[in-house]
Amino acid sequence: MLIAFISLAVMGAIFGVVLAVAGKKFAVEIDPRIESIQKLLPGANCGSCGFPGCGGYAAAIVAGKAGFNSCAPGGGVSSKIAEIMGATADSNEGERKIAQLLCAGGLEKASFDYKYEGIKDCHAALAQYKGPKSCKFGCVGMGSCTKVCPFGAIKMGPEQLPVIDASLCTGCGVCVENCPQAVLKLAGVSKLVHVRCSNKEKGKTAKDACTVACIKCKLCEKNCPENAITVIGDANGSVAVIDYEKCTNCGTCVAKCPAKTIEQIMPVTELCKPANDQPDSSNANCATCGLCK
């Protein structure tokens, strides 16, 4: 019994030494810059950078396979990453982007073909006759985007439409990729004019389905001084589309649109954040104007 115990102890010691030597000999050295860069990243692992998580992106940067400004949620971390890499950050990091909803067909404005009582999921609702709404191009209103947003930037409003909190949205694009109706789109934070419709059916048909649908009158296209908005058609029909590169936020199309399909929003700044509650009259700095709503 004692001999067996001693033999096992000796064998364990030998194997331990062998493993320790092998561990040092075949160890894969990890560049310390990877860990330093990963600490700067938000840790959301949203994949907007095109790599498998923040760790994958950090490793790609060190390997020279990725730029410093591909992390949308990280904001302005590119300069700090550049310091770690001993380089200069790209001069043009690109404008911060936030998600915009290309639909205004809520409960009060959209027509419904039937009452949906299934799973609260847009994909599930679309499996039943392409959704309960008469408009088959708009937001389904089941809130799937709120579930996939890694930053809690989307909530469903009283009209059963997604409400995007610009102060929380990082422009990661996860909601855009997961929207089965493609009614969510990323736009620069400075872009204030948006077409809130994706219905490509003929004007009357679209109007019957939603009171604020684009009727393809082309008044926006004809009056835009920058040629920034066009009624674009494809096999499914046509709808007004804004070229954000050309748009100057002049608001001409908003004033000319007879269907009130085009909206001009308030400027989004870091000092002015959206609020879901009533104005706070107890705050000495609040003018109770209500614009924050």
Description:
The protein is an alpha+beta fold. The chain folds into 3 domains: 33-85, 3-methyladenine DNA Glycosylase II, Chain A, domain 3 (Orthogonal Bundle), CATH 1.10.15; 95-189, Alpha-Beta Plaits, CATH 3.30.70.20; 191-266, Alpha-Beta Plaits (2-Layer Sandwich). It contains 10 helices and 8 strands. Strands 1-4 form a two-stranded antiparallel sheet. A hairpin with a 5-residue loop joins strand 2 (154-156) and strand 3. It is elongated. Residues 271-277 have low confidence and may be disordered.
Largest sheet: 2 strands, antiparallel
Helix/sheet category: alpha+beta
Order of helices and strands: HHHHEHHEEHEEHHEEHE
Please give the alpha-carbon distance between the first and last residues: 81 Å
Helix content estimate: 25-40%
Q: Looking at the structure, what is the overall shape? A: elongated
Number of domains: 3
Tally the beta strands: 8
Widest sheet, order of strands: 1-4
CATH-derived architecture of the largest domain = 2-Layer Sandwich
Report mean pLDDT, rounded to a whole number. Answer: 86
* CATH topology term of the largest domain: Alpha-Beta Plaits
Helical element count? 10
Q: Radius of gyration in whole Å, from Cα?
A: 27 Å
CATH C-level label of the largest domain: Alpha Beta
- Estimate what percentage of residues fall within beta strands: 5-15%
Uncertain segments are 271-277
